[in-house]
Design goal:
This protein is α/β, with parallel strands linked by helices. It has two domains: about 130 residues, Aspartate Aminotransferase, domain 1, CATH 3.90.1150.10; about 240 residues, 3-Layer(aba) Sandwich (Aspartate Aminotransferase, domain 2), CATH 3.40.640. Helix content is about 40%, strand content about 15%. The strands form three sheets. A seven-stranded mixed beta sheet has the order 2-8-7-6-5-3-4, with helices on both faces. The longest helix is centred in the C-terminal third of the chain and has 38 residues. The protein is globular and about 70 Å long.
Length: about 375
């Protein structure tokens, strides 16, 4: 039986979330747009879930637009906000997920100017570069709240305040932060924020864009007028119900879970230091569950495969790009040498992990690293 340490890629569906979903996978089959009793039950379930999501991030339910996940929500903001504007500059941090960077780059075909905001060696967005971008009359800006690889937390509230003063519309991708640290939309000084269910023990296929009610947003998907006309298509009622239940669960254990995961992460990193590992972003605030590390001379993909054979599941960078052998774009943006960046491995904890599992992983890691170093020495 493998031990799972890849919770930033996805999380196991919690049993309580599944229980909430089951009626809508079986007997409650109604379309939430239908006018009969089945439809009314489905509509109430969707609206109850909307309230649960809203409560976790401190907004009114009307501000929550359900989507199929984080990728759609990020695209809805960038493409949907741009559609109501004259072409200008769109600025995103150099460490954004591709589902932010790609649609922002696509705006260049519509006359927009695309700009990447620099980050320093710790993975923090350069405040001076933010000011420089805003001085060029940036219209749209997006900076993720917490990086999916390093776990580094950005001061989005400060960046958002700068953007607000300059008249830019500000967005944050909070997919990795939700459920791990407090996320309060009003405190972040943003006009839009992206969330996803499957990162908080909810189902895949459900996400949300949280918006300021004054934001002029155009729909990506035209259809039957669902989600206030901003997301056409029959609502995925079971997944939305699961998202709401997962948000309620996250709210109930946030105070306890963060410190516990941080203690396990620190336990792991003390052992990692003894093995000569390099930890990225360790000098600045990070998510409590995340450690991104490398060993000089050892390829990250090789390390992931060998640890999998030993019974431990970890990740090598972002899950969506794990098939690529190119070094992490996030680490390159931080100024990490490409050879060391190719060795990066992500260790991300979840609610079910224990100290005994961490210790077992450290022992397996030590054995694998020793063997790979020996093989490397022989090859040389």
């Amino acid at each position: 039986m493998h031990v799972y340490f890849d919770h930033n890629a996805t999380t196991p569906l919690d049993g309580r979330v599944l229980e909430a979903m089951l009626p809508y996978l079986r007997e409650q089959c109604g379309n939430a747009s239908s006018r009969h009793e089945y439809g009314t039950v489905a509509r109430k379930a969707v609206e109850d879930a909307r309230a649960q999501v809203a409560a976790l991030v401190g907004v009114q339910p009307v501000q929550v637009i359900f989507t199929s996940g984080g990728t759609e929500a990020n695209n809805l903001f960038i493409r949907g906000a741009a559609a109501g504007m004259k072409p200008g500059q769109v600025a995103v941090s150099a460490i954004e997920h591709p589902c932010v960077t790609a649609p922002a780059q696509d705006l260049a075909r519509q006359g927009w100017t695309f700009r990447k905001l620099r980050v320093n060696r710790d993975g923090l967005v350069d405040a001076a570069d933010v000011d420089a971008a805003l001085a060029e009359k940036t219209a749209l800006m997006s900076v993720m709240l917490a990086n999916n690889e390093t776990g580094v937390i950005q001061d989005v509230a400060a960046i958002g305040e700068r953007a607000r003063r300059a008249g830019a519309v500000m967005h944050t991708d909070a997919v990795q932060a939700l459920g791990k640290i407090p996320v309060e939309f009003p405190a972040l000084n943003v006009q839009a924020m992206t969330l996803s269910a499957h990162k908080i023990c909810g189902p895949k296929g459900a996400g949300a864009l949280v918006v300021d009610k004054r934001l002029d947003l155009r729909a990506l998907l035209a259809g039957g007028g669902q989600e206030r006309g901003l997301r056409g298509g029959t609502e995925n009622v079971p997944a939305i119900v699961g998202f709401g239940a997962a948000c309620e669960l996250a709210a109930s254990r946030l105070t306890e879970l963060g410190p516990r995961l941080a203690a396990l992460r620190d336990r792991f990193e003390r052992g990692l230091a003894g093995l000569g590992g390099v930890i990225f972003g360790a000098a600045v605030p990070r998510l409590p569950n995340t450690s991104y590390f490398a060993f000089a001379g050892i390829h990250g993909e090789t390390l992931v495969i060998e640890l999998d054979k030993a019974g431990y599941a970890v990740g090598s960078g972002a899950a969506c790009s794990s098939a690529s052998t190119a070094p992490s774009g996030t680490l390159l943006a931080m100024g990490v040498e490409p050879e060391l960046a190719r060795g990066a491995v992500r260790f991300s904890l979840g609610a079910a992990n224990t100290a005994e599992q961490v210790d077992g992983f450290l022992a397996a890691l030590a054995a694998v690293v020793q063997r790979l170093r020996r093989l490397t020495a022989i090859a040389v």
